[in-house]
Design brief:
Layout: E1 9-11, E2 17-19, E3 23-24, H1 32-44, E4 48-50, H2 64-73, E5 82-87, H3 94-108, E6 113-118, H4 126-138, E7 142-148, H5 152-161, E8 168-172, H6 180-188, E9 192-196, H7 207-216, H8 220-230, E10 234-235, H9 242-248, H10 258-265
Parallel strand pairs: 3-4, 4-5, 5-6, 6-7, 7-8, 8-9, 9-10
Antiparallel strand pairs: 1-2
Length: about 280
């Protein structure tokens, strides 16, 4: 069932409620810009914030402290905000994941994290990493645990050793990469799908999307984000401008027809703008 308003949630298989729509903060270094974006989002009614514990020379993520500061300053109660972070590839493994989580928790300034994900399926490591996530979950430091960028065969590997089943799989998902097989498998396994880069990193100059935007009186971005929600996929578009953060969330006064949903589905090219999960080398 598609979300009817910005605060609507889906219930994960362990009973935890997770918002359908949120803010992603990748590709920005820690600091005022990230704090402002989270502040704008919370003010606009967002209750899902997605970050990760990683930064390279391009400043991709590494902004947990900024996220934590914005939440601490907000009038919104911590328990009303759903925060996701992730363990980075270099920190995968059992003990190193436990240490990485503690560093993330301190950076955020939280007693607990709502959702903790394995960022990428690093071969030879992700099973041990999953066992660490299970411990964190059982010990009450995280409310839910899951995966990011895992394909069907990776998930099957996890399920072969899991005592706690993954609750979420966050993957690249957009009209050029509809991931039908993976989506169906996750539904079958009661794993909630979540989309990163839902707006194809801004490459929305697509005639069909423009036509549908005109038809519904919306932007191409809003059409795509609505498509996500009607496909029962949580979505976390990235933005740092207040006007765009507000605009992205203006999705709840229209509904795409079945025919138009199918037209968007037909745009699929199996095209990735991000890395291939089967060739993780970073």
């Amino acid at each position: 069932m598609a979300a009817k308003n910005l605060t609507d949630t889906t219930t994960l298989h362990n009973g935890v409620k997770m918002p359908w729509f949120g803010l992603g903060v990748w590709q920005r270094e820690d600091g005022e810009e990230v704090e402002n974006a989270v502040t704008f989002a919370l003010k606009a009614g967002y209750r899902l914030i997605d970050t990760a514990a990683f930064m390279n020379t391009l400043g991709i993520y590494g902004n947990e402290e900024g996220v934590g500061r914005a939440i601490a300053k907000s009038d919104v109660k911590r328990e009303d905000i759903f925060v996701t972070t992730k363990v980075w590839n270099a920190d995968q493994g059992y003990e190193s994941t436990l240490q990485a989580f503690e560093a993330s928790r301190k950076s955020l300034g939280f007693e607990y994290v709502d959702l903790y994900l394995i960022h990428w399926p690093v071969k030879g490591k992700y099973k041990d990493t999953w066992k660490a996530l299970e411990k964190l979950y059982k010990d009450g430091y995280v409310r839910a645990i899951g995966l990011s960028n895992f394909q069907v065969h990776h998930i099957e590997d996890i399920l072969s050793v899991a005592e706690v089943r993954p609750m979420v799989n966050q993957v690249e998902y957009h009209p050029y990469l509809t991931q039908k097989e993976l989506h169906a498998y996750c539904k079958e396994q009661n794993i909630q799908m979540e989309a990163w880069s839902p707006l194809m990193q801004g490459k929305l100059d697509v005639p069909l999307l423009k036509g549908l935007a005109d038809k519904y009186g919306k932007t191409p971005a809003q059409v795509v984000l609505r498509w996500d929600l009607q496909n029962d996929v949580i979505t976390i578009p990235r933005s740092f401008r207040e006007s765009r953060i507000i605009e992205n969330a203006d999705l709840f006064d229209f509904e795409l027809s079945v025919e138009d949903m199918e037209k968007i589905d037909a745009l699929n090219q199996n095209k990735r703008f991000g890395m291939d999960p089967d060739n993780v080398n970073f």
